[in-house]
Amino acid sequence: MEEAVRDGVAEQRERLMESLRIYGAHYGRLSRRFAAWLGLHSTDATAVLEITAAEERGAPLSPARLSERISLSTGATTALLNRLESAGHITRVREHSDRRVITLRGGAHIQERADEFFGPLAHRLDAVMSHYPPQLLAQFEAFMADLNTAMNGYVTDGDRTP
User: Would you identify the CATH topology of the domain 2-131?
Assistant: First the structure.
């Protein structure tokens, strides 16, 4: 009996992981559509999304941190930032007391464009989540935080990855 329950739990975990993979694939497709909509290369659009999301969280990125987040060399990141800055999509700001520290900020229009593109999806996702009680959402939030911590540890732990 216990083994059957364990098998059911393993199957449930597999279904959850498959759902997360599907969600990730949808996010990737949506990111590529956003890039095309902006007329940007997908890597440039990914950088814009990373910069604006970090800014929204109140933790704006430095060029070095962006380089880590999107897995580009520092030279490639500099070229990318030059393109985005000249197009008005981002700005590089020296807002710290240490003037060597550069902070990346979204350009004046980029948040409006992102809201225009992603706003309808945000409303759909909010409508779906509104059907679940806050306690369940809190559990799911903790679950996702734990998964993200495990994934981040694996990604950043270079001696374990091939």
Answer: Arc Repressor Mutant, subunit A (1.10.10)
